[in-house]
Design brief:
It is a single chain. The chain is mostly helical. It has a domain of about 100 residues. Helices cover about 95% and strands about 0% of the residues. The protein has 3 helices and no strands.
Length: about 180
């Protein structure tokens, strides 16, 4: 009896894996996701196998039970597996066909919305860049004005000093002239 149950469990495990294969045919998967799915599947399968062995044979692992599961898997694979995968894949695709039109429209609308948002974001990005460049140019202009006003103020101070010196010289010359006139008188 335990041997027959092991054969049945082997077939059930491959039937569950075929459900995973059907899902992969309906929805395209990348290699990494397939690896993760397989890992989760086989961990879950080992837990179910252990629970079956624990319930049916008090947790004693027997060689004939492993052989029975392998025999059930091989028999299921060669007799039913391809037929079930093809049949259920086509059935689900047929049942989903009316929804395919709706899904295509939803996808089209979604892509339109994504493109619309992306275009808006690009325009916003461009306007922000323009505003930032304008702000940078404004700061640069202010800096240049400050530098030029500093230079102008330095020049103005230098010119004022020159004028003061010239005035002082002129005053000094005027004093000399006045002194010379006093002497001449």
């Amino acid at each position: 009896m335990f041997f027959l149950i092991s054969i049945l469990w082997g077939a059930i495990i491959l039937l569950a894996y075929d459900c995973l294969r059907i899902l992969r045919r309906l929805i395209k998967h990348k290699t990494l996701l397939i690896g993760i799915e397989d890992l989760i599947f086989w961990v879950a399968s080992s837990i179910f196998i252990f629970s079956m062995i624990y319930r049916e044979n008090d947790g004693i692992i027997r060689g004939f039970s492993i052989m029975g599961m392998a025999l059930g898997m091989v028999a299921y694979h060669y007799i039913f597996s391809d037929l079930i995968v093809k049949l259920f894949t086509k059935l689900i695709q047929y049942l989903l066909k009316p929804f395919g039109f709706i899904l295509k429209k939803i996808k089209k609308i979604g892509l339109y919305l994504i493109n619309f948002v992306l275009i808006r974001l690009k325009k916003l990005h461009k306007s922000v860049r323009i505003a930032l460049n304008a702000r940078i140019q404004k700061k640069k202009a202010i800096r240049d004005r400050r530098k030029s006003t500093k230079l102008e103020s330095k020049r103005a101070k230098a010119e004022a000093k020159k004028r003061d010196k010239e005035l002082m010289k002129a005053k000094a010359n005027d004093k000399k002239i006045v002194e010379l006139e006093k002497i001449d008188l």
